[in-house]
Amino acid sequence: MSGKLITIILFFLSLFYQSGHCGKAYLSADTKVDITIKSPISTKDPQPKSLIGIIEIASSDSAAGVEIFRKGGKVAGRILEYKGAGHIGKPGALKIALDSLETVQGRMVAIKPFFLSADGKGKRLKACLMLPLLGAGYFVKGSDAILAAPPTPITVRTAKFEEITF
Length: 166
Known about the structure:
Blueprint: H1 2-16, E1 24-27, E2 32-37, E3 41-42, E4 55-57, E5 61-63, E6 66-69, E7 75-83, E8 93-102, E9 108-119, H2 124-130, E10 146-147, E11 154-157, E12 162-165
Antiparallel strand pairs: 1-12, 2-4, 2-11, 3-10, 5-6, 7-8, 8-9
């Protein structure tokens, strides 16, 4: 009889302390989070497969005394455009859309649409002027696009109200 009683007590205790979660914090919509570009992205280099490790959370952030975002946390997104500089003075172009941020608990939280872009310098006039010289203008390339870290962190905003368990 005592074995069954202990089993019932352990069952109810496991429901109370489910999955090791101790509480909840609430992250409101439009919460500002600073991010930074850790290493520059250039269209001269091969296209990266993901933005993880390139763009990251710039500083720790908390809500109601609970750490939600940690410095160095992941920022997820996708590359929309990645064109290297081309012949006849065409410049390079780079456009990135950021989608979500990783919480301390490993959950991805959506952010409002945010885009980063960079364009290289075109040399079309120089190429056109050199084109009559045995087609030399065809080999004039524009400059590549480079997306480098700005001097201050970039601020993004969360998209919706989120319940974070910890």
